[in-house]
Design brief:
about 50% helix, two-stranded parallel sheet, mainly alpha, two-stranded antiparallel sheet, about 200 residues, 4 strands
């Protein structure tokens, strides 16, 4: 198993990441500011939530999200699997999660180079270890940059769905990756967000 794409393709991917994420961040800045103020009002806590995730080649980084609820403990966010039905979620938090708008601060992660616009979704270290022990092909996903969206996500493989299926879709993306495939996945992701199909 090897990393796909030559130097020129990887350069184009990084260029696409910087141009699209930078433009999106500038255009959405007023909206992000309003969302931040609404979050502060609903949760009374921080606007952003930072969480350790595993990126390309197993390198860890701090992923950013809008904080839709305040964790009871620091460890809760690191080892708790799915809290989409948590009674601490207010109306705004539910909307942000359902539409995946809570993920928009990750545009900064893309700009910094922690992740790409498209790639396997980054997971927490606790679950990377667990899933790698359970599924022999899971760790192969880390041969490419992790992404804000991916091939598995546009096929509704997120939340409480099969980890085995997700890993297979992620590895299929790695095997067949191209800049054009990234563009198509981004376009399909926009459609999914507008249909509020996140979770």
């Amino acid at each position: 198993v090897s990393a796909p794409g030559g130097t020129s393709q990887r350069f184009l991917k990084r260029t696409l990441d910087v141009v699209v994420s930078g433009t999106a961040a500038l255009l959405l800045a007023p909206v992000l500011l309003v969302i931040g103020l609404l979050i502060r009002h609903e949760t009374g806590g921080s606007i952003l939530f930072r969480q350790r995730r595993v990126g390309r080649f197993g390198r860890e980084f701090d992923l950013l999200k809008f904080q839709t609820l305040v964790p009871r403990t620091l460890a809760e966010g690191d080892t708790g699997w799915n809290i989409s039905n948590d009674d601490r979620l207010g109306p705004l938090g539910r909307l942000l999660r359902a539409s995946s708008i809570d993920e928009l601060p990750q545009l900064w992660n893309v700009l910094r180079g922690d992740m790409s616009l498209v790639g396997p979704r980054p997971e927490r270290p606790h679950f990377v270890k667990l899933f790698s022990e359970r599924y022999s092909h899971y760790a192969d996903r880390h041969r490419v940059p992790v992404g804000l969206t991916g091939w598995a996500q546009i096929h509704r493989l997120r939340g409480d769905t099969s980890i085995d299926d997700r890993a297979r879709f992620d590895n299929a993306y790695c095997d067949q990756w191209s800049v054009w495939s990234d563009v198509k996945i981004i376009m399909k992701t926009v459609g999914e967000v507008f249909r509020h199909s996140g979770g």
